[in-house]
Give the backbone structure.
Amino acid sequence: MRILHTSDWHLGRSFGPVSLHDDQRAFIDWLVELCAAERIDLVVVAGDIYDRAIPPTEAVVMFREALVRLQAAGHTLAVITGNHDGADRVAAYDELMDVSRVYVRGGYAKIGEVIHLTFADGPLDLVMLPFLDPQAAPDDMAAPAGEEGDDDAFARRVRRTHHSVLEAAIAAAQPHISAPRTLAVSHAFVAGGEASDSERQLTVGGTSTVAVDLFDGFSYTALGHLHRPQQVRPMVRYSGTPLAYSFSEEHAKSVTILEMDAKGATTITEVPVPVGRPVRTIRGTLDELLQVRPTATAAHSLTRAILTDAGVVIDAKQKLSAVYPNVVEIVLDSPIQEGAGLTGALADQRTMSPVEVADAFWKESVGEVATPSQAQLLHTAIVDAEGKVA
Ligand SMILES: [Mn+2]
């Protein structure tokens, strides 16, 4: 059978001031075509469907359309919620949708369940492990051992970690597994994985990672949460996001296609996502950046400009936009360190005249002494001002 693994769509997300609606729409159009062309049996979305617990209606409509189109094309769907999703909202109609072979699971509601699916080449047992907030675990769920006499519900809640709730969830499902091949879908930070700048921490305080050994028993584990595509173990893999969601994500984006035989032996292919704007960081003085003629791809990229001008930069956004239409962030990284110069000449300012202080300040902030004409203008202004004060 053939499985497509993707995750972290973050529908409704924007990139700074730029909406990603069209990029996300283009991804879904491409995905629907890819799944048909690749004769995909099962499409897996491993969490963070939306960017927020209460997503904008455009995002809800986009997700609904994706499900409708994929289901109409004959694919089975397996979707879990991530830490960004409102689990109860996303999975609100789970049992009603199961009859369409669109399996959506969120939160703790269906923990312990194994979905027995049958494909042309045989059965597959599916274990859906949505993001599980340790603080929200049901009181009767197993927790790590504590001190003697410290076993009330509150103490157990404090001891629970993301690892412990996931371990308990997998243990609850284990006895129900019967097929020779198994697929786990989980939204978690597996220890050893590499993060980028756009994942939100799973838990506040404590450790939020889980050990990769938790997934030892599965033929393949489709992970969501980390935004860079990566393999933690040969058969434990993050598909990564379909689009870049921070400037730390210049790497290629992809979805993962699996060819799994009846016993669970799996081969993995990474398919690059050809749509959506990539991200790019450019660096230099404003003049340097404006002199470059960017390539079509560069001009199309969501761009962060790091300006290294020593002095004041005026209208940087407007000027850069003419060359880089998708400049979304401008960072000033002046070679002169803020405040550092003040320990030098300016430290002696009590013994300096106002003109000397102004010259020193000019040199500190611009990086070189004022030209004769600049100095003259400056000195005239100071003398003029002093005359008025006196
Ligand atoms: Mn995510």
About this structure: The chain has a mean pLDDT of 90.
